[in-house]
Amino acid sequence: MAPRTGSSRRSFVVASVGAALALGAGGTAHASGRSPFGRYGSPSARLDERTLYVHPGGLGDHTTVQAAVTAASGTGHTLVIAPGTYRETVAVGAARTELTWLGASEDARDVVIVYDNANGTQKPDGSGPYGTTGSATTTVQADGFTARDVTFANDWLRADHPEITGTQAVAIKVQGDRSAFLHCRFLGHQDTLYADSLALTAFARQYFAHCYVEGDVDFVFGRATAVFEHCHFRTLQRTDLAGAPYGFVFAPSTAVANPRGYLVTDSRVTSEAPDAYYKVARPWVPGSDPTARPMLTVRETRLGAGIDAVEPYTNMSATYPWQSQRFAEYRNSGPGADITVPENRPQLTRAEAASHTRRTYLGDWAPWSREGC
């Protein structure tokens, strides 16, 4: 995504130290008989032979998430992750299919996977900067990935690195088909959640339910077919900019051949920033895919006062005006959804809206049928 100049700082929310200690991160709770893995068993009482346990203090099979992923070769493994802040980068390769991550406390605030690389951060080997994709704290390329009750974060801050202009800092890049995130959090600033696919011809389906996503510039972006249901998107305050806009929530880059892009339904957008300082979206047509035709539908969602109701969409490049893309709304509410200039807010008819549902987007895959979804 195109960089924005300036710096920004927020109070970064990490795992609760109290919760981690209570669940055995320091070993004391384990000694009293309380498992740091909650209802998901333990290394001595595994859910099954394909379940691995991660604990930062050594009470599991592995102390880092990446070590557990490496050990989980093949398909169908489950990682139960104890409360803690895991400062590391994690990569799930395409061969590790049907992998599940479970936050042991069943509260995403307690299990945080975080690192602080940005696009412009130089690699230790001197080969150059990481780039946007390389900045990701977590990268998932495998099909059938599921995460529940986990926080994915990138806490790189502009204010700490004024010399870096490549300020994109990805918390997670998801490229696999049938990727589901339930009750998860995604924390960052620019380019927080990269919902993408492995190739232009791969229409990766992704599902985000009851999730929290925060950021400022293009903080949900990519070319996946992604459904966001009952999610909370939070736009952040910025002290480095003198005026609006502070940023953009969505920046889809849907391939022209893909009939389904991003669908946001039954969700809400709130803001720390002044009223009307954020846009709903701008289309991203990357240099690697100049024929992209970004698609975003926002329906039955509450848009708070932080959204610019008069001009909720804008261009990333004048060459690809948003009006030529596939942006639409249906029955949204809140002050940010007021229709004051109709041509700036394309609305679906009831008949058109019938083709913009989780079932039409995700086809024969129904991740919401799982318990608690």
From TrEMBL:
Alphabetically sorted, this entry's keywords are: Aspartyl esterase, Hydrolase, Signal
Annotated GO biological process: cell wall modification; pectin catabolic process
Q: Which reaction does it catalyse?
A: [(1->4)-alpha-D-galacturonosyl methyl ester](n) + n H2O = [(1->4)-alpha-D-galacturonosyl](n) + n methanol + n H(+)
Which superkingdom is the protein from? Bacteria
- Tell me which residues this entry annotates as catalytic: D218
Molecular functions (GO terms) = pectinesterase activity
A Gene Ontology term for the protein's cellular component: cell outer membrane
Its Enzyme Commission number?
3.1.1.11
Signal peptide positions on this chain: 1-31
Q: What class of enzyme is it?
A: hydrolase
Q: Which Gene3D superfamilies match?
A: Single-stranded right-handed beta-helix, Pectin lyase-like
Start and end residues of each Pectinesterase catalytic domain: 54-361
Keyword Ubl conjugation present in the record's keywords: the answer is no
Q: Does the keyword Signal apply?
A: yes
SUPFAM superfamilies referenced in this protein's UniProt entry, alphabetically = Pectin lyase-like
Q: In which pathway does it act?
A: Glycan metabolism; pectin degradation; 2-dehydro-3-deoxy-D-gluconate from pectin: step 1/5
- Pfam families linked: Pectinesterase (PF01095)
Question: Into which family does the record put it?
Answer: Belongs to the pectinesterase family.
- Please identify the protein, giving its name as recorded: Pectinesterase
Q: Which organism is it from?
A: Streptomyces dioscori
